[in-house]
Amino acid sequence: MNAIHSTLFTDAILARGLTKSFGGTRVLTGVDLTAPTGSLLALLGPNGSGKTTTVRILTTLLAPDGGSATVGGHDVTREGVAVRRAIGLTAQQATVDDLLTGRENLELFAGLYHLGRRQARRRAAELLERFDLATAANRRVGTYSGGMRRRLDLAASMVSAPRILFLDEPTTGLDPRSRADLWSMIRELLASGTTILLTTQYLDEADQLADRIVVIDGGRVVADDSPAALKRQVGAERLALRLSRAEDVPRAGAVLADAHLDAGPREITLAVQGPDHLRRTLDQLHRAGIGIERVELRAPTLDDVFFEFTAVAA
């Protein structure tokens, strides 16, 4: 953690009771969240849960109807200019220009931050090297791969050396290697003292990177803790069964009516509370004539946390 930043304020991002409506639809209903300086907070939730609205409020792109929030110690409604000076934002859609080279894109962003020409060239060169784009610096971005474009987009958000970075689904659409490369860069930013708020559809990403996870559903926070603590809250081990026939999945749901099932084409997963419950579950399915090809018992994952808390909220 950057010692200078940590002495200025403990929480880089702090929101209390955020509310927002569009027309007659309430999108946020009192969102609270905190990101200590130098940490990564992952914001998870189903589509339409309020994640993007929360990020837009915290980055001053949208005014809340109620509640309060500070970013970098500055109020997002009264000190918008100061907030924008303190943050970087990588949105879901890339903001770089396909017709310009990687170097030209970064120098353009540097100019928007009022850096002089010499300083802009130096900063662009530093970032191209840091994000492993130096060899492609003079190529048009339209020739870049998806992973390269995403790295350039992240580099552009770092032109002003922000203390706080908002990453809105930064790895969506990337192949596994490109995702892993971006994860490494995010870890490097954290190690340098940058505070990061990450929204993602990939639960393994949040599990790997986050110090804390906030799950939003229906415009409110339904879970807030470290990944390990959230998995402990879910508690029970998971029994994953692959059935012999896809048509038996609805029958299994009827037989195990008291259990919350996550079902796939031929798979069902449910929480089991100890050996007796496991034995009873398998006996019930056997008596119903439901064939089982594979049985797996595993510890809870972040996927289980997500389904558990969003199912409760629903």
UniProtKB/TrEMBL annotation:
Keywords: Antibiotic resistance, ATP-binding, Cell membrane, Membrane, Nucleotide-binding, Translocase, Transport. It is a peripheral membrane protein. The keyword Metal-binding does not apply. GO terms for biological process: daunorubicin transport; doxorubicin transport; response to antibiotic. PANTHER family: ABC TRANSPORTER ATP-BINDING PROTEIN (PTHR42711), DOXORUBICIN RESISTANCE ATP-BINDING PROTEIN DRRA (PTHR42711:SF19). NCBIfam families: drrA. Belongs to the ABC transporter superfamily. Drug exporter-1 (DrugE1) (TC 3.A.1.105) family. This is ATP-binding cassette domain-containing protein. It comes from Nonomuraea cypriaca.
